[in-house]
Amino acid sequence: MTNSQKKHVGDSSTSQKKANKQSKCFRHTAEQVQHLKEFLKKCPHPDKDQLIQIGKEVGLNPKKIKTWIYNNKTTTKTQIEKSDNKTLWTENERFRCENIAMKEAMKKIICPQCDSKRASNLENLKEENQRLTDEDEKLSRVTTTRGVDKGHE
């Protein structure tokens, strides 16, 4: 009986392809993986001869080893990126909370002279700054004119 005769009624060619694909799935043994990891630590970028040599040692063809190395590096890179992203996300959340806390603290600042919340109002601060600048200019003019008057005496 051939494979086509074994085909059950109602089976589609798609399910047959899936079954064939699943039977082709290959898993490395724990010993092979351990040996490959150790090899990869020693030689992160193996050439063709090294792939052939390690293939003989673990019983795999060089193409499977090359594929395993590529997948392993990709998986490792993805894990590192996820870890970095989690760290950055946590740090970002911490900064966001600090920022909110500082904004709340700025709202509650009390002006020591008038015992009110005027210091948190930017417009009031600008007006106060302008008033003090004008006062400083007046005092500068007065002291300059007095200095000139004294020089002429």
From TrEMBL:
The keyword Nucleus applies. GO terms for molecular function: DNA binding. Pfam families: Homeodomain. Residues 19-79 form the Homeobox domain. It is found in: Nucleus. One of its GO terms (cellular component) is nucleus. Signal peptide: none annotated. Keywords: DNA-binding, Homeobox, Nucleus. Residues 21-80 bind DNA. It comes from the Eukaryota. Residues 1-26, 125-153 are annotated as: Disordered. Its main location: nucleus. PANTHER family: HOMEOBOX-LEUCINE ZIPPER PROTEIN HDG10-RELATED, HOMEOBOX-LEUCINE ZIPPER PROTEIN MERISTEM L1. This is Homeobox domain-containing protein. It comes from Solanum verrucosum. The lineage of its organism: Eukaryota, Viridiplantae, Streptophyta, Embryophyta, Tracheophyta.
